[in-house]
Design brief:
Helix content: 40-55%
Number of domains: 1
Distance between the termini: 6 Å
Strand order of the largest sheet: 2-3-1-4-8
CATH topology: Rossmann fold
Order of helices and strands: EHEHHHEHEHEEEHHEH
Shape: globular
Structural class: alpha/beta
Number of strands: 8
Bound molecules: adenosine-5'-diphosphate, zinc ion
Strand content: 5-15%
Number of helices: 9
Largest sheet: 5 strands, parallel
CATH architecture: 3-Layer(aba) Sandwich
CATH superfamily: P-loop containing nucleotide triphosphate hydrolases
Length: about 220
């Protein structure tokens, strides 16, 4: 199954992608996680992306498209994949279509996760993640252990720099301008499925499985 998870920052795309990865045994491909790992390791990609990420802007399309092209060629994508955080602009979506059409492996579904706008800022402000494995926590709804060590891998749990309030506003504005048009783009292709993301993680997971039924 080849899936895209769509939705503004902070709607739980990463959490849902990880669950789907387990269920369907296909990899979660999070461009945000890949970029943050590159940043942490100081690779050329990380250096190139740094200033964009810190300002809450999109990393240029060509950089991201190349990254995805390479990633999708890996063996673990043979049976499908879950794209989380990509595409994020119309040019990225068009490039993805071209890539997948060449291989005769089009997308099955684009799952659009909806959360009321005013709830998103709180979620982002309270989000904390593991520096090592990217597992995420929420100070209110899913608090990290007091020692701020990840229960999965022992990594340090921290607040992303771009989860501070000024940058959050930028990211939401960028979403509205660049990414929201993808809703229409994919609904025109009849592969858009919308779920209510303002629920417990397990319930959102169940709704996603429900909308995916019959397409895999
Ligand atoms: P969130 O889903 O919380 O907004 P991500 O981890 O997906 O955050 O992305 C963090 C940052 O990485 C973005 O603000 C952007 O700078 C960069 N980024 C991630 N994916 C893309 C993409 N597909 N295109 C351009 N920039 C991206
Ligand atoms: Zn961890």
């Amino acid at each position: 199954m080849r899936l895209v998870l769509l939705g503004p920052p902070g709607v739980g795309k990463g959490t849902q992608a990880k669950q789907l990865e387990k269920k369907y045994r296909i990899p979660q491909i999070s461009t945000g996680d890949i970029l943050r790992a590159s940043l942490r390791d100081g690779t050329p990609l990380g250096l190139r992306a740094k200033s964009y990420i810190e300002k809450g802007k999109l990393v240029p399309d060509d950089v991201i498209i190349n990254l995805i092209r390479e990633r999708l060629q890996k063996n673990d994508c043979k049976n499908g994949f879950i794209l989380d955080g990509f595409p994020r602009s119309i040019p990225q979506a068009e490039a993805l279509d071209i890539m997948l059409n060449e291989l005769n492996t089009p997308l099955h579904s684009v799952v659009n996760i909806e959360v009321p706008g005013e709830k998103i800022i709180n979620r982002l402000k309270n989000r904390r993640i593991c520096r090592k494995c990217a597992k995420d926590f929420n100070l209110i709804t899913n608090p990290p252990p007091a020692d701020m060590k990840c229960p999965e891998c022992g990594g340090e749990i921290f607040q992303r720099n771009d989860d501070k309030e000024v940058t959050i506003q930028n990211r939401l504005a960028v979403y509205d301008k660049e990414t929201a048009p993808l809703i229409e783009y994919y609904s025109g292709k009849k592969i858009l499925r919308t779920v209510n993301g303002y629920n417990k993680h397990e319930e959102v997971h169940d709704s996603i499985i429900m909308v995916l039924e019959g397409v895999h």
